[in-house]
Structures are given as C-alpha cells and as structure tokens.
Amino acid sequence: MELAMFLCIAPIVYLTTYLLVPYARKCALCWGAIDKPDQRRVNRYAVPRCGGIALMGGVLVGFVMLNYLLVASGYANGLPIGIVVGTNALFAIGLWDDIIQLRPLRKLIGQIVASMCIVATGVCPSVTGVYQCDFVCAVGFLVVTVNAINLIDGLDGLASGVCSVIATGFLIVAAVHGLVVPFVLSMVMLAICGAFLLFNRYPARIFMGDSGSLLLGALVGVIALLEIAPMPQDPMNICSLMCMIGVPFCDIFTAVVRRMRRHQSIFKADTNHLHHCLLHAGYGPRQAVRYLVALSGVAVAAGCLLAFSNGFVCLFTLILYGILFGLVIEKTHVTDADTRAQRVSAVRGLSQQCMPLSSAHSTTPVHRRINAIIYCWLRWMCRSKNLQLHTAPDVVIKE
User: Fold this and answer.
1) Rounded to whole angstroms, how far apart are CA atoms 102 and 15?
2) Domain-wise residue ranges, the chain
3) How far is CA 385 from CA 33, 112, 335, 382, 388, in A?
4) pLDDT in tens, 73-89
5) Count of beta carbons in the 10 Å neighbourhood of residue 217
6) Nearest-CA neighbor of 8 among 60, 55, 66?
7) Distance between CA atoms of 6 and 175, rounded to whole angstroms?
8) Which residues sit opposite 397 in a β-bridge?
9) Contacts of 73-79 spanning 24+ positions with Cβ under 8 A
10) What would the pLDDT profile of 30-76 be if each residue is shown by its tens digit?
C-alpha cells in the first residue's frame, strides 16, 4: 500500500491540535487544573495543565482519518479498536488526575487495565512464542513506557520535544519497512507534538499535564509494539526501538533504583530526575531541554543505525551508546550539597542579613538605604538565576 496517500492526515491533525490548545487552556482555568509554583516545579507563574485535551483532539481526528482510508483501501478491518479504547482510557485517567489528583496506586491500576485492553486486541508481538508470556511482557512494556514519558514531563517543552524526536525515528523505521499503521501513528504523534510545542516551549502558556503525557506514552508504546510485530524474533529490531526510547527509559530506571536504594516508595516524587539534575548543575530550563532533546536525537540516530546496519556497526553503536549514557548519568548525578544548592543557600543567607528591616540591623537612614540597595541587587540576581528569595512568587496566571 502506498504510504503517500496518508500524508494528508498530518496537516489536518496539526491544525486541529493548534486550534484546540486555547480551548484546552480555558477548560483548565475553569476546572482549577493549575500548576502553582513550588519546590519541585520550575515555573514562576501558575500555568494551566490540561493541554492533553488538545492532543487528544488531534489524535482522534487522526484515528478517524486513518480508519477511513484503511477501510476505503481494503486494508483488513481498519484500525484495531483496542488502540482507540486504550488510548482514550489512558487520556481519561490522566485528565482525571489533572483535575482531582488521583492516588498513584489507583492510577497505576488504571494504566494496567488500559494497557491490557490495547494488547488484547492484537497489538501483541510473538517474541517468545508463548502467548501468555508475550501478553504480560507487552502490558508491562506499555505501562513502563507510559510512566517514563510521564516522569520526563518536568520542564517546558521537554516531553513534547523528546516525543517529537522519538516519533521521527519511528516514522523512518515504518517508512523503510512499509508499515502503514505505525507510519501514520508516528506522523500523528509528530504533528500533535509540533503544534503543542508552540504553546508549551519556555516560558510555557500551558502544560500537557498527565492527560497529555499518558496519551503520548501510550502512542510511543503502541507504535513500538506495532513495529516489533512484523519481526518479533529479530533482536536488532527490538534493540533499535528500545534504543530510540532510551532517554525516558534511562530516567525512569534511575528513578526507581534511586528510590529503592533509599527505601522509599517508587511512587514518591523527588527532584533528582535527569532534568532536575541538569538544573542543579547550573543549566537553565532552555539549556536543559535542548540538552535532553539532543541526547534523545543521538539515541534515535543510534536506533536507526541498529535497525539498518550490519552486525559490526550494531555492536560499535551499542558500545558508544552505553558509554554516552554512562557519561550522562555521571555528569548529571549530583547530591543535595551540590554547588548550585550551596550558591542558593549563600544568597539566601546573605539576603537575610541584608534585609531592610526596621530593627537593630537598620539603625540609621544611611544603613537602611544601603541595605535596601543590597537587597534589591540580591533579588535581581536571584531572578536572573531562576532562584527564589525568602517566599514563593505570587500565584499569577501568565497570559
């Protein structure tokens, strides 16, 4: 089947997502689904977080057009219904969490049920030859992928950028192998991420929230399973696709290991993800996003080499890939007493000593004026470094 006939889906999906983002923002404000500044978040303003509504609108348009073209061209029975139901279920779970904050265990149970719905309808590669084992592995892979994309959504434009790069790699693999459904789904994911990124890049006007991150995670997992299915016994095919999702997988793997070593619940949030570590190391939000998106691009390039090269090149690529991620983990691994934290403490301590108070610290008008100048300078320095001085910023909705 000619893949060119499906190219018309991308611009329509892109335009639909772009037009729905302002309405998604209004819905978030109406429901009170707003991310306010705190210790774990880097946004200095309150930002609406239901951007997944716009992403879901674009995905639904893509599903309808894909199913129509598949049926019109006589391709089997069209798009598997489990993909539509499962992705909608994961989106609903995320939207519910955006509005009323679900407990982690309940959210995990919902993710497992939705993943089982997707896999039960035929999206289950026969890797081991035993259906029960393949079913469990496929469900586990979907759940891990969904949570990996959810965890990496911590900076403005990070999840959108990383998923765009991953979708590009999936698109190349599907085009080379002539896989229709993965090709179109990759194109849909690339279109919705590109449109949403216009509103989500730093400084973001809207966050995708769990509704968007769970939806993108579902698409990443489904496309990977669909591309594994034609060649389930080919280890290079599986390794190449896992390699493309390497950055989110590295983040969730290190997070789980870190929490287990500290005897903490794996559901407990912390500030030691890859993007947090880059911020602690002194990178700004834009720099951290560019760094991780570029790293994801390297991972996708390595996956493409694994998919289309001979054994020697594959081995060489795997070695370089392992060294690269080892260096990344080493460079971004920082402790609570890193240099930036020390700088924050020093600035805050100095500011407390120089506060223009009407107490013993400011006994004369000259002292009060000098202290006021020093305090204003410290406030400016903290803002230029994206730090907070004394109290959290006022909760303001940024237009």
Assistant:
1) 32
2) 4-332, 349-384
3) 28, 41, 19, 5, 9
4) 777 667 888 899 999 99
5) 31
6) 66
7) 12
8) 46
9) 73/1, 73/5, 75/1, 75/180, 79/181
10) 988 887 776 666 667 788 888 999 999 999 999 999 988 888 877 76
